[in-house]
Amino acid sequence: MAKAFRELLMVKRVIYGIAILTLLTALSLYVILFSPFEYDQISYNVRLPPLTRSDTTWPYIFGTDNLGRDVFTRTFYAFILDVSCGLAIVTLSGLVGLVIGLISGYLGGFVDLILMRLMDIVISIPGFMLAIAIAAVLGSNIVNAILAVVIVTIPIYARLVRSVVLSVKESLFVLAAKEAGLSDVRIVTRHILPHAIPIFITQATMELSNAIIYIAALSFIGLGAQEPTPEWGLMISMARRYIREAWWPALFPGLVMFLTVLSFNLIGDGLRDYLDPKKRLSFRVLG
Amino acid sequence: MKPLEVKKLTVEYMMYRGWVEVVSNADLEINERDEILAIVGESGCGKTTLGLTIAGLLPSNARVVHGYVKVFGKDVNSGSAKVAMIFQDALTSLNPLLTVGDQIAEIYIHHFAMSKKEAFEEAMKRLAEVGLQASFINKYPHELSGGQRQRVLIAMVIALRPELIVADEPTTALDVTTQAKVLNLLKSIVKGKGIPMVYITHDLALVAHIADKIAVMYAGQVVEYREKLALFKDPLHLYTQALLSSLPRVDVELSELRTIRGEPPVPGNFPKGCRFSPRCPKAFSRCFVEEPRIKNVGNGYVRCHLYE
Amino acid sequence: MSNGVLVKTVGLKKYYEVRSMFLKRVVGYVKAVDGVDLEIRRGETLGLVGESGSGKSTLGLVLAKLVEPTSGIYIFNGIDITQRFPKALRGKIRIVFQDPYSALNPRLKIKESVVEPLMAQGLDRDEALEKAVDYLKLVGLSEEHLEVYPHMLSGGQRQRVVVARALITEPEFIILDEPTSMLDVSTQAQMLELLKDVKVEKNLTYLFITHNLAVARYISDTIAIMFAGQIVEIGTKNTIFNNPLHPYTKTLLSAYPPPDPEFQWTPEIPEDTSSIDSSYRQGCRYAGRCPLKIDDCLKSMPELIEVERSHSVRCHLYKT
C-alpha cells in the first residue's frame, strides 16, 4: 500500500495538484487564524482596489466589495466552506451510491433491475430543477442545495461500483470464497469491495470538483448560500452588479475557485492514469 | 540457401526494471524444405520470443541485441522474407465480423492482386486442403469449433504462400482428438507443399511424432539441439532427461514420476554459470561459475559441462 | 456406509435452460450432466476423463455443492446431501480449481487466502494462522510465504497454496478439476507427486478431473470416461487400459502420442458428422461420430452395463 502511494506521487500532475491544494489550504487556515477582518465585517471602505492600505495590520489584499468587506478574507473563508460542502456531497452521495452499487451488482435479478431503473430516473433529473423544487418546498439555503446535489449524483457512483462488482463477481477467487463457505456479506466486503475502492476514490476525487462548481452555481442563482455567507458563487453573483466599478470582488473568488477545482482535477486525473495504464505496461510479455 | 538460419541470436525485452535478456545466443537451422524444427520448453524459456523473432514480429518493447535470423538467405527484418505465423488462440486471430471466405479471399486480393472471383476460387481450394467442406466459406468464426477455426487459420497461412511457417502452440487449446487431426494436417502441408516449419510447443510427446529436429530451450538458451531419433534414444542434457522422465504415459504404467526440484527461472533472474545448475542432479563446481559452451554432437549440439 | 463407499450419486443430472431472446421462453436444454451414477470408495482416486463439453467440470461443481443438480441423488458417507448440506460436512468436501492465477484474490496476502475456509467456520484467527503454517509446510512452501502476495509466486507455488487452502478444513473428499492443466510439465510432475503424498498422509479420497489420459493413468485407481454428460465407460485402471471397450475410449487412447518416435502413431479419429444439438436425439450420444454404429445406436440410449468384473460400458455393441 505504502509503495503504491509512493508510486502515485511520482505522477507529476498529482504533485502539482497537491501543491496547489496545500498552498490554498494553508492560506485559508492562516486567514482564519490571523486575519484582522471578519468575513461579514461591513465598513465604509467600499470598493477599494486591491492592496489598498487599511487601518489594521493587513492591507486589503484583494480589495473590498460593495459593503466594504475584505475580499481576501472572504475568498479564503469561502474556500473552507466550498471545499467542505464538496467533501460532504461526495461523501454522502458516494457512500449511498457505493452501497446501492454493491447490492445491485451482487444480488442481480429483480433487485438490480429496480435499483438501476431508479438510478436511471434520478440521473435524468436536471440538478438545477431539483434544486429549485427543493428550494421551493424547503427554502433556499446551502444545506438544501447540498441535498439536491447529493441526490442527483448518487447514480454516478452506483453505476460505477455496480460495473466493477459485475466483473469481479465472476472471478474464480470469488467462487473459491463461496466454496470456502464465506457468507455473502463477507464475500462482498472482503473480496469485491477492495476492488471497487480504487476506482471509486478516483471518481470521487473528480466529482469533488464538480460538486464545488455545482454548489457555487446554485448559490450564484440564489438557491444555495445566502448573504452574508462567504461562498464563491454568491460572492461572484453579488459582484456582478457593480463589476464596471470594481472588477476585483468578482475576479478573485473566481480565480481561487478555479485553482481549487484545477488542483482536484489534477489529482483525480493523475489517480486515474496511475490506476489504468500501469496495469497495461506490465511485465507479462513472455509466453 | 538454408530455409532457416538462426545465428547467435540474443533478444531482450524492456521490463519495468530495464532491458532483460530473454533469448541468449540461439543457434538453429533448418536444412531441408520439408523439415520441421521443434522448439520445446516450458514457460519463460523464451521459445515464444524466439518464434516471434523468426517471424519478424517482435513487438516494439523488444530488441535483437546481436545475431541474426535468415530465411532462405534473407534477413527476417528486411521485409523480403516471407514468414507466416500460426498463433495458439485461433479465436482472437480471426476477425469475428468477416466470414471465413472473406478472410481467406482477402489475402489473395491484397497480397496477390487477384480479382474477387479468383480469390474466392482459391479460397475454396484452401478450405478443401485443410479438410473443411465448401459450405464453410460463408460461416463466421463464432459458428466454428476450436479445431475448425484453427484449420481456417492454417488455410490462411497456406494462402500467404510463405517460405517458412512458425507455429506457436497451435494445438494446445484444442481437444486431444482435434489436436491429432490438426497435427496431421500440418505435417501434410510441410511434407506435401515443401514449406519448412518451426513448431513451438511444451509437449515433448507430441514432438516425437511431428519433428525432424528438436531444440530444447531452458532459461533463454538452447540447451540441446538434436535430430529427433537421437534425442529420444540418447538425451544428453540433464534437463532433457528430466523432462522426459517427468512425463506421465498413456502406454506405460509408471509407479512414480521423476521430478526436478525447484522451478524454471524467470528472465532477469537467471542463475550464474550454467542456468540449469541449481536444479541439476549432476552439477559440479564449474557449473555454478562458468557458462557451458556448445559441444557438437553428431548433427547437433549440447550445452553442458559434462560433455566438454 | 457399507464397503467403504464415500461418495455415491444416482441419476445425477444438471440441465441448463436455453431461453429465447424475445419472451425468455425455454426452447431447449443443455444437458451438461445427464444421468451419472458413481461410487467412489474411501481412499480411492477416481479419474474422470473427458474433453471439453463432456460435462466433467459441471459434475465436479455439483459434487462440490457449488451447483444445484436438476435431479438425482448425492450421498456422502451414507448421508443424503442432495437437498440439505449440513454445516458439519461443509469442510469435508473441497475443490481445487484449474487456474492458479485466478483462484487467489490478488489483493490478499497468501495467509488471508489460506485461512479463509477456517474463518468461515468461525475458528479463532490465531489458531487458524497456526494451521495455515502447518499446511503450507505440508505442500512444500514455508512460513515466509504467508506474507507475500500471489503475484510474487509462480504458477506451481500458487497451485500449492490452493491445495493448502483445500486441505486446511481437513476434508475427506477432494475434487480436483484439472489441477495441473495450466502448469508446466516439470511443475505438473511435482504437483502430482505432492497430491499422491498428501492423499496417503491425510487419508483422502479424490475425484481427479482431467482431459489428459496419461495423467489420469498415472494418478487414478479407477477411471471413468465421460462424453456428452454421461459416463460411457468406467473401470479400474487396468481394465480400461488393457481392454478399452467403448469406441470413444479407443479413439481417445489412439489420440495420445507416446513420447517415443519409433512408435507408429496412427490416430483413428473419425469425423464428426452429427449436429451439435443433442437434445432431440434419442439414441446413443456418440452415434454421430461412431465408426462402429449399428441400427440400435440411433434408436435407443444404451445403458451402462457391467461387461467384466469392475468394468462397465455404455454401448449397444456389448450386451451381457
Care to describe what's here?
The complex is a heterotrimer of chains A (287), B (308) and C (320). Chain A contains eleven helices and no strands. Chain A is mostly helical and 287 residues long. The longest helix of chain A has 37 residues, at 71-107. Chain B has 308 residues and is of the alpha/beta class. Chain B folds into two domains: 4-82 and 162-307, P-loop containing nucleotide triphosphate hydrolases (Rossmann fold, 3-Layer(aba) Sandwich), CATH 3.40.50.300; 96-161. Chain B is built from nine helices and twelve strands. In chain C, a hairpin with a 6-residue loop joins strand 1 and strand 2. Chain C contains nine helices and twelve strands. Chain C is 28% helix and 25% strand. Chains in contact: A-B, A-C, B-C. At the B-C interface, helix 6, helix 7, helix 8 and helix 9 of B face helix 4, helix 5, helix 6 and helix 8 of C.
List descriptors:
heterotrimer; A: about 290 residues; about 75% helix; elongated; disordered C terminus; C: about 325 residues; alpha/beta; Rossmann fold; 8-stranded mixed β-sheet; about 25% strand; globular
